[in-house]
Structures are given as structure tokens and as C-alpha cells.
């Protein structure tokens, strides 16, 4: 069934993005563009928004909201911290499939509490007789 943009037929949010620009986002360095309401109706025909955000501010939005980074016509890099919080059942295999990240190293094994304590003690007391 096509929900046709009727919010009564749209699933509740399953993931949110938190964008924290690490530099001020301006029209010159490529702000993020959003289409309001597109999380409910992907084909929403409404004007997009490109908010200018201050470095360190946070913009939280439904993962389904249509968005994209615009071109950076400046000379400086435009870093943006990007965190996704999702319900445990959900994985974005469309944007983050295994092929795209196949060259990433294996995730490091997390040290146990005992190993971390031992390492800390070695660091602190290691040089002492
Ligand atoms: O860089 C941005 O402003 C947005 C990036 C983005 O939407 C993405 O990587 O999915």
C-alpha cells in the first residue's frame, strides 16, 4: 500500500541522525540541504532548506529525511561529525553495505576490564623498580 504521504500510514522513527558541524556551515562551504516532510512523504514537493549552522551546534533529524551535503566552493575542509542512533533491529545496508567498506581493517578486540587495569598499572608503575 502506498501511504501517499499520509502520516497515519507511516512507520514511527527507527533512526535519527545527529549532525554536528565542526566549522560554521555557510552557503560557501556547502551546508546540508533538507527537504522538510520527506521523512513522511519521500516525494514531497516542498522547497528545501539549507540552514547555516554554527560549529558545535547539533541538528537532529529523522534518518528518512531527504538530505545531502551541497558543494563546498571554499578552500577549507568542512568536517562534520555524524552520529546515527537507531533501533537495534535496523541496519542501513543501502548506504553502508559491506562492499563499500571492504577495505576497512577488522574491528579491534575490546580489552577486558582486567586487561585495561593491568595496562594502566603498567603505564603508571611500569617505570618504577
Ligand atoms: O555532509 C553533509 O552535509 C551531509 C552528508 C550526508 O548526508 C551523508 O553522508 O549521508
UniProtKB/TrEMBL annotation:
Organism the protein comes from: Emiliania huxleyi (strain CCMP1516)
SUPFAM superfamilies hit by this protein: Clavaminate synthase-like
Name by which UniProt lists this protein: Phytanoyl-CoA dioxygenase
Entries under Gene3D superfamilies matching the protein: q2cbj1_9rhob like domain
Amino acid at each position: 500500500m502506498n501511504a501517499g504521504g499520509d502520516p497515519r500510514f507511516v512507520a514511527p522513527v527507527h533512526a535519527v541522525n545527529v549532525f554536528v558541524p565542526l566549522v560554521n556551515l555557510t552557503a560557501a562551504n556547502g551546508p546540508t540541504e533538507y527537504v522538510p516532510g520527506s521523512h513522511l512523504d519521500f516525494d514531497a514537493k516542498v522547497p528545501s532548506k539549507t540552514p547555516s549552522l554554527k560549529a558545535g551546534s547539533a541538528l537532529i533529524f529523522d534518518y528518512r529525511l531527504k538530505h545531502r551535503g551541497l558543494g563546498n566552493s571554499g578552500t577549507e575542509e568542512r568536517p562534520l561529525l555524524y552520529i546515527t542512533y537507531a533501533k537495534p533491529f535496523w541496519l542501513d545496508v543501502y548506504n553502508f553495505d559491506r562492499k563499500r567498506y571492504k577495505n576497512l581493517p577488522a574491528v579491534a578486540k575490546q580489552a577486558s576490564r582486567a586487561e585495561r587495569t593491568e595496562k594502566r598499572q603498567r603505564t603508571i608503575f611500569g617505570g618504577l623498580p
